[in-house]
Amino acid sequence: MATIASPSSTTIYLNAFDKTIQHDGIIKTIDDDYWTKNIVPLLYPMWDSDNDKLEVFVLYKDGTTRMNKTKYTRNQKTGVYKWISYQFDLSPFTTEITDLSNNLIDKWTEYRQGQENDLERTLAAAFANTAILNWTKVALIRNFLLMESDWTQLGDAPITTEQKAQWVKYRQKLRDIPAEQEKKNASLVVFPITPSKHAVLADGLNYLEDVSHYYTIPQSVYSKFSSRIVNYLALAISTIDIDEMPVTRITRASTSTVSSSTGNSTLDDILKMIDEGDFGE
Fold first, then answer.
1. Stated pTM of the model
2. Which residue range forms the structural domain that includes residue 18?
3. Of 23-37, 54-68, 103-117, 246-260, where does mean pLDDT reach its minimum?
4. Higher per-residue confidence, 5 vs 155
5. Domain total in the chain
6. DSSP 192
7. Domain match, 81 and 32 both
8. Residues near 170 by Cβ (< 8 Å), separated by ≥ 6?
9. Domain contains 175
10. Which pairs with CB-CB distance under 8 Å and at least 24 residues apart come from 158-163?
11. Do 18 and 72 lie in a common domain?
């Protein structure tokens, strides 16, 4: 079926044949059970019936709407019945369409939140199964520390030129961890202390030129990162456009796409990547 709208121009997009709903640029493929229990009652019998089936409904951001349907129609000349697609006139149903749109958005939100909660619970369980610090977790913690120090590289950061140079050195040391320490067990990886902690230390030694300026991640510190790791992985589901409609995909911490997925395979892909240490590169 041809695309009739770009995600950027739509508020809600429903494809009844594919059982997909798109809102806020994110498309969800609804599982059969949820569709039957929660979506079908919104559509049947007013918008969808056995002989007059709903194909697509779109509410555009400018307030206009469109509905494509397919009807089982008899050819008057040949007497043969076949399915004919047509655009349904929605002009007499302003109130009903508003109700339909609002209800679909509510159900999309409910479905998405349920999926994300299930995903986060399963990810949390996967990480709770082991207290061992592996390289996947090391790489993610390294990424978090880099993100937390991004502010130091802004032009108007409230630090001196000397302090900024130290932060640059700190951030480079974080980036070098995989290359410089790849042969180590993850639990023995050392992280640089921040320039702020070095200033408090006041040991008179040049920054990051003594072993006392490095530390390993104790379990107590790792525990503080655990929930953040889970949230980060759960949010590693992004959307890209295919034929102008978004498709849910799993992505690495970088921008490269790993695999497209819908439904439960999303979780399977993420857990597989955790096992293979394929996040946080």
1. 0.48
2. 7-113
3. 246-260
4. 155
5. 2
6. E
7. yes
8. 149, 192, 194, 195, 208
9. yes
10. 163/195
11. yes
